[in-house]
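Model it.
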Amino acid sequence: MKKFKDILKAQQDFRSRRNNFLKINYSLFGNLIKQIYDIEGFPKGAMIKYQYGSTKNTNIIEELVGINDKGNCSMKINIIADGIDHIFDFVTTKENETLTLQIISGNNYENFNYSFNEFTNFDDLDFEDEINYIIQSIINTYDIWKF
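Modeled.
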C-alpha cells in the first residue's frame, strides 16, 4: 500500500528533475547570451533580456529563464539595431538524450538539437549556427522589402 511518504518522494523527485533542467538551461542560455554579446561590433546596450513573464529588463539568469507546465524552458530577448527592436524567443524541450532549442522570430523559427547526458557542459557549446540564424533573421526582416 502506498504511504504519504510516497507522495513526498514523488514531489522531491519532481523538484530534483525540474531543478536539474533549469540548471542546464541557465548554463545554455547564459552561454548563448555571452556569445551574442561577443559578436564583432555588437554595441553595448543593444540587448534587452526580459524577466520571465514580464517586460522588465534583467541581468540575472535565474530571473530570465522560466519553466512552464509542459516542462519547456524559455527566455525572451530583444536585440536593438539602430533603434529598431528585434524580439527573439528561445524555447528548450528535452526528449530522452536530446535537448532541442527553438529560436523564434516573428512567424519564423529554427530548431537546434544537442545530444547530452549528465556530463554535458553547456558552458562550452559553440553557438555559431544559432547566432548566424539570429543575425540572418534580422537581415531577412529588411530583405523582404524590395522597393
